[in-house]
């Protein structure tokens, strides 16, 4: 059933960010009314124009810090949403190591305020943006939701683990919230229209935007950190998921929560492809689909890098009725189209 009116409103915190903006598109396509809350501290207002081009209409956006209690309370009072997808968080691993208090204050306080407002305004559905970083370097692969969490490698990663615990404990205390924490693996790609995509501020921290910026001549060279790992070509292995597939998973999570007839619920679900790809294979596939060579060098291993991790996605397949649809070639082709648009 397609929701209507107030019953379709979903607050999307951090909705102008990479994953948030693509999820806004998927929500609209599924019949929901997403409402963005984003202070643009780690995103750009041009994303709103991109969304307008894709959707044919504006998406309501509140340029608000999710830690601002007065503003957030006002939004809940005015909009009366049926659910929240919570992306908003600081996310730079290196910065979190240098400024841990900044990360704990922002990422955890915003979640606490959100849960308090959801309880006060009787908003029952929450999808939480978590991460496979909670697994560290697992002893067995692929990673299932029962794989033990290991101590985080960074304060950023720890805020995701603590965030999961906060939600779990709140639900155990019988606050009337149903919540799913989605543990994503490595999002890549862009919307096929090239109207929205990943917009890293400064030097990219993720592999694919570094590849596309190097291919575009913005970066002189890409460093591959280590080629002596116990993998087929010696480089690290990750599970790379197209951002549009990831966005669709959030919509399926919202639908699952709405369709589950209980007052309180908490669960965690891996969102990935179930396949591991090496860094060198990502570079080779990019070169194959674009015809553009990437200038890269092999450097020493980087402290804190996990050797290999990829998901078991059985639970996402069965519980959410969701499966990743887009190929690695599709994702890299779309990421390059987006980079070319930015470079014009």
Keywords:
Rossmann fold; 7-stranded parallel β-sheet; two-stranded parallel ribbon; 13 strands; globular; NAD; EC 5.1.3.2
SSE arrangement:
Layout: E1 9-13, H1 18-29, E2 33-37, H2 46-55, E3 61-62, H3 69-79, E4 83-86, H4 93-98, H5 100-120, E5 125-131, H6 155-172, E6 178-184, E7 186-188, H7 207-215, E8 222-225, E9 237-238, E10 240-242, H8 243-259, E11 265-271, E12 277-278, H9 279-290, E13 296-299, H10 314-319, H11 328-343
Parallel strand pairs: 1-2, 1-4, 2-3, 4-5, 5-6, 6-11, 7-10, 8-13
Antiparallel strand pairs: 9-12
Describe the structure.
By secondary structure, the protein is of the alpha/beta class. It has a domain at 5-189 and 242-272 and 312-324: NAD(P)-binding Rossmann-like Domain (Rossmann fold, 3-Layer(aba) Sandwich). It is built from eleven helices and 13 strands. Helix 1 packs parallel to helix 2. The longest helix is centred in the first third of the chain and has 21 residues, at 100-120. The termini are far apart. The mean pLDDT is 95. Pathway: Carbohydrate metabolism; galactose metabolism. Belongs to the NAD(P)-dependent epimerase/dehydratase family. Homodimer. Pfam families: GDP_Man_Dehyd.
């Amino acid at each position: 059933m397609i929701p209507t009116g107030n019953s379709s409103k979903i607050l999307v915190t951090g909705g102008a960010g990479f994953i948030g903006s693509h999820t806004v598109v998927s929500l609209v396509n599924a019949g929901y009314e997403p409402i963005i809350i984003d202070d643009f501290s780690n995103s750009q207002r041009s994303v709103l124009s991109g969304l307008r081009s894709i959707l044919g209409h504006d998406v309501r956006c509140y340029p608000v810090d999710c830690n601002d209690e007065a503003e957030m309370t006002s939004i809940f009072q005015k909009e009366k949403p049926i659910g929240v997808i919570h992306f908003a968080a600081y996310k730079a691993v290196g910065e979190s190591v240098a400024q841990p208090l900044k990360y704990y204050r922002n990422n955890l306080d915003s979640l606490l305020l959100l849960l308090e407002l959801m309880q006060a305004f009787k908003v029952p559905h929450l999808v939480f943006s978590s991460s496979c970083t909670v697994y560290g370097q697992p002893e067995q692969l692929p990673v299932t939701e029962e794989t033990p969490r290991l101590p985080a490698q960074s304060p950023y990663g720890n805020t995701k683990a603590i965030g999961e615990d906060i939600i779990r404990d709140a639900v155990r205390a019988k606050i009337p919230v149903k919540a799913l924490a989605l543990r994503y693996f490595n999002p890549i790609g862009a919307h096929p229209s090239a109207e929205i995509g990943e917009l890293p501020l400064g030097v990219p921290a993720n592999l694919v935007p570094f590849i596309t910026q190097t291919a575009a001549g913005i970066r002189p060279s890409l460093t591959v950190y280590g080629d002596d790992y116990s993998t087929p070509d010696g480089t690290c292995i990750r599970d790379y998921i197209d951002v549009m597939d990831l966005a669709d998973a959030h919509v399926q999570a919202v639908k699952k929560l709405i369709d589950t007839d209980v007052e309180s619920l908490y669960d965690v679900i891996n969102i990935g492809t179930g396949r591991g790809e090496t860094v060198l294979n990502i570079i080779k596939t990019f070169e194959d689909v674009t015809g553009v060579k990437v200038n890269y060098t092999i450097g020493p291993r980087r402290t804190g890098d996990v050797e290999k991790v990829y998901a078991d996605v059985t639970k996402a397949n069965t519980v959410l009725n969701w499966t990743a649809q887009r190929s690695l070639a599709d994702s890299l082709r779309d990421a390059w189209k987006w980079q070319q648009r930015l470079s014009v």
